[in-house]
Amino acid sequence: MSNNYRIKEMLLTLQGEGAMTGTAVVLLRFEGCNLNCDFCDTDFTGTDGEGGGIFNTASELAEAVQSKWLSDTNTPNVLCTGGEPLMQLDRELIKEFHAKGFRILVETNGTVKAQKHIDWICVSPKTNEIPVQRSGDEIKIVWPQEKTDPGKFEKLEFNYFWIQPKFDRNYKENLKASIEYCLANPRWRLSIQTHRVMGIP
Questions:
Q1: pTM of the full predicted structure?
Q2: I need a labelling partner for 65 at 20 to 30 A (CA). Which of 82, 90, 188, 197 fits?
Q3: What domains lie within the chain, and their CATH numbers?
């Protein structure tokens, strides 16, 4: 794990997709990824986004995340995403988040095994290979994905199985294909990126 934490952006927003849609979270986007997907729709390069920067200790980063949360009465949520957050989210940072009362949500491509004591894990495989992280709360397939068979992942240990239309210039066609897949394969549910509709991060 890294000796410091490189953060692209950090801000209070609403989770826009999956089972946690509409939930208030501090979005913590880690810089960097171990994949190079040609359909990626996220800027995770550099530390120049809103709230971004280099944090030298887990305590420093956890305090910065805590400063973004507005409520004094509800359990705070930190959504660790990227890029690939599990390249940087280590035991020390998990401990610091929990010490401040945070529930830790993670969105990962599944190529890195998750540390223990993460509260919510969403795996989004970007290839047809079975991920290293084979269990969690939800699995999400961006659709359509060339040479990927969602049925291959159905025996993995997840509570929710999502098909999410690829966000690119062919979005309408991708949405139609996603709806058709879910109708033909009802184990899968449709996940819409509602944050794009709302115009929030």
A1: 0.94
A2: 197
A3: 5-198 (3.20.20.70)
Tokens 């033909």 map to which residue?
A: 184
Distance CA 189, CA 185 (A): 9
Taking CA atoms, 110 is separated from 1, 139, 145, 196, in Å, by 17, 9, 16, 24
The closest alpha carbon to 77, from 67, 69, 87, belongs to 69
Q: Which residues contact 67 (CB under 8 A, 6 or more apart)?
A: none
Q: Which residue's structure tokens are 């929990």?
A: 98
| Cα–Cα nearest to 119, from 79, 86, 67, 92 | 79
- For residue 179, the SS3 value is helix
Is residue 77 a contact partner of residue 37, using CB atoms and an 8 Å limit? no
The pLDDT value recorded for residue 29 is: 97
Identify the segments of the chain with pLDDT beneath 70. 1-3, 41
Among left, alpha and beta (phi > 0; psi -120 to 50; other), residue 67 is alpha
**Separation CA 31–CA 33 (nearest Å):** 7
The phi and psi torsions of 55 (rounded to 5 degrees) equal: -115, 125
Q: Which of 140, 97, 146, 88 lies closest to 118, judged by CA?
A: 97
